[in-house]
Amino acid sequence: MATRTTLLGVLAFGFLCFICLPAEAALKKYQFDVKVSNVSRLCHAKQMVTVNGGFPGPTIYAREGDRVQINVTNYAQYNLSIHWHGLKQYRNGWADGPAYITQCPIQTGNSYVYDFNVTGQRGTLWWHAHILWLRATVYGAIVIMPQQGTPFPFPQPDREEVLVLGEWWNADVEQVEKQGNALGLPPNMSDAHTINGKPGPLFPCSEKHTFAMEVEKGKTYLLRIINAALNDELFFALANHTFTVVEIDAVYTKPFTTDAILIAPGQTTNVLVRTNQVPGRYFMAARAFMDAPISVDNKTAAAIFQYKGIPETVIPKLPTLPAQNDSDFALSYNSKLKSLNTPKYPANVPLNVDRHLLLTVGLGINPCPTCLNGTRLTASLNNISFIMPETALLQSHYFNIKGVYTPDFPDKPPTPFNFTGAPLTANLRTNVGTRISKIAFNSTVEIVVQDTNLLSVESHPFHLHGYNFFVVGTGIGNFDPKKDPAKYNLNDPIERNTVGVPTGGWTAIRFRADNPGVWFFHCHLELHTGWGLKTAFLVEDGPGSDHNVLPPPKDLPTC
Question: Which cofactor is essential here (predicted)?
Answer without folding.
Answer: Cu cation
